[in-house]
Amino acid sequence: xxxxxxxxxxxxxxxxxxxxxxxxxxxxxxxxxxxxxxxxxxxxxxxxxxxxxxxxxxxxxxxxxxxxxxxxxxxxxxxxxxxxxxxxxxxxxxxxxxxxxxxxx
Length: 105
Description:
Rossmann fold; two-stranded parallel sheet; DNA strand exchange activity; DNA binding; 2 strands
């Protein structure tokens, strides 16, 4: 993709494999994000949530916990460590969650 992020190009690639694409236009700093809420409402067991880049690690961990509770999985395109579709990714996410519990991040 070159050095610059192209949202449309990423979404085009995902559209071929996806049943739904949610494009959030609200800053990740806000708790109330309409597209995030809509995605979480539609989330089902076995789904895989793919994002370009997570913003806040603490917020990411909260969202991934919600995704896991439904029986779905999570992966980030630009942050390969944030991937609950692999054993290594699950381990890394567990470590980050433990660190977050200690209020380190």
